[in-house]
């Protein structure tokens, strides 16, 4: 099958948007990709939103030489879960990102320099406002579905809450309505790793030869530990040594798991901005619709969307208990909600890896009936 070649597009919202903090900010450029075609009625659009360090490139390849497709390529395409023969799928880069959407590394038109820490702190609700502006530009008034995993699930949830009359269905995968204290703690340590790097320079490092690469790398290593689980760690690495058969009795890398984390940290600094990491993790920490609306029931009360919620039994970062809290809230409100807990040894990363069973469940849900077993 030939590669699906796609291009990242850009739209600039040429006005100021009022953030939750009260700050009015703009203009904002949004990076996005689309797959499939919008039908004449403009009612087949699905908004797909990414996790913490993702981008707008959710499917396909940017050119024939690309070795790696978009992050949800196994779910988006002809005949796949998000079937581009039926649906018009839109993927956007989050506000504050570093992959085309305006963020701290973007040039401030008033100064000609990167925003750095002058970029305002934003929330998940603010990034959803930006996504809504993009949909307005695309002429979309109704979403057949909004879908995302992890932080993407938070955005999907917020979209339903902010624009209840616009969304027909929502797919929330490996997500939560509020981060646990432990989750906040991991984010705090990651941010502290960046801020403690002497090359961070209070966020003013863009014109420097030395950037806070070590701090960002350490932050990624910390985060990556939470994406796996003990079973995944043992299955992948055990206590195997890296390219040796005995301990070196020094502080170099001995174990394969050390080498893996070090590699993940190193490749991350090549594609991500340290300041964006600070801002986006803070937005995740702030997400708490129950607190804002008085209760989770109040937050979802106005929505008539159908819901599919998927969790994974080995996910200890966003455990199934947090998904079940959302499910129980929706059930108590009399909403149409389907729930599946998938057995997986992959931990939180399962939403990016367990494609076969997710495909069956999502495809069935979008066809308005759930018939597949969660554990096939």
How are the elements arranged and paired?
Blueprint: E1 9-13, E2 17-18, E3 24-25, E4 28-35, E5 45-49, E6 76-77, E7 82-83, E8 88-92, E9 107-108, E10 113-114, H1 124-137, E11 145-149, H2 151-162, E12 169-173, H3 181-196, H4 213-227, H5 230-236, H6 256-268, H7 274-286, H8 289-293, H9 296-300, E13 306-312, H10 320-332, E14 337-342, H11 350-353, H12 355-366
Parallel strand pairs: 5-8, 5-11, 6-7, 11-12, 12-13, 13-14
Antiparallel strand pairs: 1-4, 2-3, 4-8, 9-10
Helix pairs in contact: 1-2, 3-4, 3-7, 4-6
Features:
single chain; 376 residues; Rossmann fold; Rna Polymerase Sigma Factor, Chain: A; 2 domains; 12 helices
What do these coordinates show?
- It contains twelve helices and 14 strands.
- It has 376 residues and is α/β, with parallel strands linked by helices.
- The protein has two domains: 9-179 and 288-366, Alpha/Beta hydrolase fold, catalytic domain (Rossmann fold); 183-281, Rna Polymerase Sigma Factor, Chain: A (Orthogonal Bundle), CATH 1.10.1740.
- It has helices spanning 124-137, 151-162, 181-196, 213-227, 230-236, 256-268, 274-286, 289-293, 296-300, 320-332, 350-353, 355-366, and strands spanning 9-13, 17-18, 24-25, 28-35, 45-49, 76-77, 82-83, 88-92, 107-108, 113-114, 145-149, 169-173, 306-312, 337-342.
- Helix 1 (124-137) crosses helix 2, helix 3 runs antiparallel to helix 7 and helix 4 (213-227) packs across helix 6.
- The radius of gyration is 21 Å and the shape is globular.
- The chain has an eight-stranded mixed β-sheet with strand order 1-4-8-5-11-12-13-14, with helices on both faces. Strands 2-3 form a two-stranded antiparallel sheet.
């Amino acid at each position: 099958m030939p590669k699906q070649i796609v291009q990242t597009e850009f739209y600039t919202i040429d006005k100021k948007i009022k953030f939750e903090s009260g700050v009015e900010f703009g203009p904002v450029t949004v990076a996005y990709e689309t797959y499939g075609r919008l039908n004449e009625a403009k009612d087949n659009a699905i908004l797909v939103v990414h996790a913490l360090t993702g981008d707008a490139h959710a499917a396909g390849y940017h050119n024939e030489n690309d070795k790696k497709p978009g992050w949800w390529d196994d779910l988006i395409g002809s005949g796949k879960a998000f079937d581009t023969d039926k649906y018009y799928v839109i993927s956007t880069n989050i506000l504050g990102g570093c992959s085309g959407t305006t963020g701290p590394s973007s040039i401030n038109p008033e100064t000609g320099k990167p925003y750095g820490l002058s970029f305002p702190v934003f929330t998940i609700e603010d990034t959803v406002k930006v996504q809504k502006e993009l949909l307005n530009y695309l002429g979309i008034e109704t979403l057949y579905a909004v879908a995302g995993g992890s932080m993407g699930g938070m955005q999907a949830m917020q979209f339903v809450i902010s624009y209840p009359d616009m969304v027909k269905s929502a797919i929330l995968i490996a997500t939560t309505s509020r981060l646990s204290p432990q989750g906040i703690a991991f984010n705090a340590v990651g941010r502290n790793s960046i801020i403690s790097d002497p090359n961070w320079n209070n966020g003013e490092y863009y014109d420097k030869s030395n950037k806070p690469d070590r701090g960002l790398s350490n932050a990624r290593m910390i985060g990556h530990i939470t994406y796996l689980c003990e079973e995944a760690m043992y299955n992948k690495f055990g206590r195997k040594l890296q390219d040796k058969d005995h301990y070196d009795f020094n502080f170099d890398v001995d174990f394969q798991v050390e080498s893996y984390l070090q590699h993940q940290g190193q490749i991350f600094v090549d594609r991500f901005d340290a300041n964006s990491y600070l801002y986006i993790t803070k937005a995740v920490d702030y997400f708490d619709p129950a607190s804002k609306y008085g209760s989770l029931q109040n937050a979802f009360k106005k929505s008539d969307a159908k819901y599919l919620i998927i969790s994974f039994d080995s996910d200890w970062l966003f455990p199934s208990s947090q998904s079940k809290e959302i499910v129980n809230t929706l059930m108590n409100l009399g909403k149409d909600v389907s729930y599946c807990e998938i057995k997986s040894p992959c931990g939180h990363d399962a939403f990016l890896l367990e494609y076969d069973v997710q495909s069956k469940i999502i495809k069935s849900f979008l066809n308005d009936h759930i018939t597949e077993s969660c554990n096939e």
